[in-house]
User: Fold this.
Amino acid sequence: MKKQVVLDVVCPYCNHSLMDNEVEIKGLSSVCLNIRSEDNKKGTIHLCAAYECFDHQPDLPIKDGEILGLCCPHCHKELLTKEICQVCGAPMADLGLASGGFVRICSRLGCFNHFLSLTDQESAHEIAL
Ligand SMILES: [Zn+2]
Ligand SMILES: [Zn+2]
Assistant:
């Protein structure tokens, strides 16, 4: 049976939950972030909370390959870091986890580079599929 890791994501700055119960992707609460497109349009994006699932629903028309500015919808801090994606050279964004640790994702839409760092493996919510 395949295990799926479901992320419970918080803002690394204000610690506010970034989960949105009202928008579900694949039957899970989604991760909601503010975005800024390359042509400076602002909107929101919902990401699938299942680790290694890359389904997303932006409310702006975004081209594949565009680098998004990612911000916390609560404190509006920029979540991009100085760390550069090893695959495509775009900045990586940092998201905290409610259980401790963090997840880092590439800010380029369509680039699937990401990694997960858990302080405690047991604290990830795992559900059997
Ligand atoms: Zn915040
Ligand atoms: Zn990348």
